[in-house]
Amino acid sequence: MARLNVNPTRMELKRLKARVTTARRGHKLLKDKRDELMKQFLDIVRENKELRERVEAALIRAQKGFTVASAIMSPEQMEQALLYPKQSMTLSIDYRNIMSVDVPKYSFQLKNDDPSEIYPYSFATTSGELDDAVGALSSVTEDLLRLAETEKSAQLLAQEIEKTRRRVNALEYVMIPQLDETIRYIVMKLDENERGNVTRLMKVKDMMIAEQFEAKQ
Amino acid sequence: MYKMAVLGDRESVMGFRALGFETFPVEDQTEAKRILRRLAQEEYGVIYMTEQLAQYLGEEIAEYRDRPVPAIILIPGKEGSLGIGMRGVHDSVERAVGADILNN
């Protein structure tokens, strides 16, 4: 691991030690964040999978219903029957905070509260199969919205987990070893200087004693 | 206040219109791309799209994946499921965990 390019001074050592402490603390916090995100994510994604299976099955059933209806009625009749809807939907989005990730919470409002408003045609000119198909589709609406909610949440959480994991790894395998290495280098260098100093002093002392000894004789 | 859109071939989206979704029947991919882009810029919170259409729009869908709004959700069209939507769920897991652990 490469060490940082710094001057081996006491000042620098002090600075680096402070940095490594911060890095360690950050690493621990991010690791906790990652673990908690993962826990939440796994719950959500399991629900996501289950919902998707259910919704897909229900939608395929509903689509089959429409196919049957279109076999009985002419395409023009079908088109005309569904051309102008009586019902309309609006969506409001609230956000829920999971470990600093804003995940959406959807709720929808219907313009008409009457459940029969989903049939925008007169029953006289259409076949019963169409009613069944529309009814089947309408029963999926709630799940369809919850699917959107969980799927988006799962996607957003997955992104955040990926980001957090990268940060944790960068700290654990790059930043912290690099700082440790640099600190060790500076400590070594300072110690070496210290030893150099001591030997020099001893040498000078020896020389001075030798000089005094010679002067006496 | 947001709106909900359904994007797909005419027959697949027809039924959704009766329920109060806003439907956008499209026949070819270039048109789909254009409409998707427009919907994403406007106030559509959730866009449901048939898998039959989505198989050609992978890039566009990936682009909106990490944004909070809109949510693009794949649904099976009238020809049934292609498994793209389910694969998306598995992709999320793989991205977060590093391996697909849902297969059990």
Task: Give descriptors for this structure.
heterodimer, A: 217 residues, mainly alpha, Helix Hairpins, two-stranded antiparallel ribbon, 2 strands, rod-shaped, B: 104 residues, alpha/beta, Rossmann fold, 4-stranded parallel β-sheet, 21% strand
Write the layout of secondary structure elements.
The complex is a heterodimer of chains A (217) and B (104).
Chain A: H1 10-72, H2 75-81, E1 89-98, E2 101-110, H3 128-216
Antiparallel strand pairs in A: 1-2
Helix pairs in contact in A: 1-3
Chain B: E1 3-8, H1 10-19, E2 22-25, H2 29-41, E3 44-50, H3 51-54, H4 58-65, E4 71-75, H5 84-97
Parallel strand pairs in B: 1-2, 1-3, 3-4
Summarize the structure.
The complex is a heterodimer of chains A (217) and B (104). By secondary structure, chain A is mostly helical.
If classified by CATH, what would the architecture of chain A be?
Orthogonal Bundle
Q: How many runs of DSSP E, i.e. beta strands of chain A?
A: 2
Strand content of chain B: 15-25%
- Order of strands side by side in the largest beta sheet of chain B? 2-1-3-4
CATH classification, class level of chain A: Mainly Alpha
Low-confidence sequence ranges of chain B: none
Number of helices of chain B: 5
How would you describe this protein?
The complex is a heterodimer of chains A (217) and B (104). Chain A is mainly alpha-helical and 217 residues long. Helices cover 73% and strands 9% of the residues of chain A. The two termini of chain A are 59 Å apart. A 4-stranded parallel sheet of chain B has the order 2-1-3-4, with helices on both faces. Chain B has 5 helices and 4 strands, in the order βαβαβααβα. Chain B has helices at 10-19, 29-41, 51-54, 58-65, 84-97, and strands at 3-8, 22-25, 44-50, 71-75. In chain B, helix 1 links the parallel strand 1 (3-8) and strand 2. The mean pLDDT of chain B is 87. Chains A and B meet through helix 1, strand 1, strand 2 and helix 3 of A and helix 1, strand 3, strand 4 and helix 5 of B.
